[in-house]
UniProtKB/TrEMBL annotation:
It comes from the Eukaryota. InterPro entries: Ribosomal_eL30-like_sf (IPR029064), Ribosomal_eL8/eL30/eS12/Gad45 (IPR004038). The lineage of its organism: Eukaryota, Viridiplantae, Streptophyta, Embryophyta, Tracheophyta. It comes from Herrania umbratica. This is Uncharacterized protein LOC110413727. Residues 92-152 form the Ribosomal protein eL8/eL30/eS12/Gadd45 domain.
Length: 176
């Protein structure tokens, strides 16, 4: 079953589930390398007019507070659809360090993300998940990273991950 469908079913009490499909080990390395290539590709296609840190902030909500803020600004999505206007900023997915300590820092994110129909991608690396996520956005650590829906190479790779497709190490995705 793809991650997109599992996220809501695995969240019972708002705590981070211990999931067998959590990205770790060699699988995590492949996924993070693919996302990194997507970041580089999107950066090249966008041009180099902005400093890298500012450009990264346009692509990602970085950190628990920023991810929470963006999620709270998104309107909750009813199961039958909503007649409200779409928000200006939408998260495609959230990368979350599953080995965050203390757990209460991220306890609210699964429930909030589920109410906005934003899937979670758990990252676990022997208590170093936040270090791995930090590398992705050129910081020392990052417990949570929200991927903003921009329609670029990053979003195409995240879509493949959410659909349960194995990420191709050699392929560099192009924006159509």
């Amino acid at each position: 079953m793809p991650i997109r469908n599992k996220a809501a079913k695995d969240i019972v009490d708002g705590s981070l589930p211990q999931r067998p499909d959590c990205y770790e080990g060699e699988r995590l390395v492949r996924v993070l390398k693919s996302i990194q290539r997507g970041v580089e590709s999107a950066r090249v296609l966008a041009g180099n007019s902005l400093p890298e840190k500012i450009w990264l902030k346009q692509q990602f909500a970085i950190g628990i507070n920023d991810v929470t803020r963006v999620l709270e600004r998104m309107a909750p999505i009813a199961d039958k659809g909503s007649s409200a206007q779409a928000p200006c900023l939408r998260l495609q997915a959230i990368l979350l360090a599953a080995d965050c300590n203390p757990r209460w820092l991220t306890k609210h994110l699964p429930t909030l993300a589920s109410s906005r129909k934003v899937p979670l991608i758990f990252v676990k690396d022997n208590k170093k998940g936040s270090l791995r996520l930090g590398e992705l956005v050129k910081l020392k650590t990052a417990i949570a990273i929200g991927v903003k829906a921009k329609g670029n190479a990053i979003n195409q790779i995240i879509e493949e991950i959410l659909d349960g497709d194995e990420v191709n190490d050699g392929a560099l995705l192009e924006v159509h």
